[in-house]
């Protein structure tokens, strides 16, 4: 992918997107988090897997994506310390 070649990876990692910055802590104490480099028309930023999963959970609750199984969410919540409020 040529788009990724032109991105400033250090700047992207210094500009993380967070789902809930006030509640976001270290979610994977014993593992390194997967981080995605993203770009829109005006910004380059990073998003960790935990934040992406929290966004997926919100999209599921709002009807934006099909419902995932409760078992899958429980496994994800345990692994990535995501709060399930149902």
Structural class: alpha+beta
What is the alpha-carbon Rg in Å? 14 Å
- The proportion of strand residues reads 5-15%
Globally, the shape reads elongated
- Strand arrangement in the largest pleated sheet: 1-3-2
Order of helices and strands: HHEEEHH
What count of helical segments does DSSP give?
4
Overall pLDDT, averaged? Answer: 77
Helix amount: 25-40%
How far apart are the termini? 39 Å
Largest sheet: 3 strands, mixed
Low-confidence stretches: 21-30
Please give the number of β-strands: 3
Structural features, described:
By secondary structure, the chain is α+β, with helices and mostly antiparallel strands. Helices cover 38% and strands 14% of the residues. It is built from 4 helices and 3 strands. The protein has helices at residues 2-5, 9-13, 49-61, 70-80, and strands at residues 16-17, 35-39, 44-48. A 3-stranded mixed beta sheet has the order 1-3-2. The longest helix has 13 residues, at 49-61. The relative contact order is 0.16. Residues 21-30 have low confidence and may be disordered.
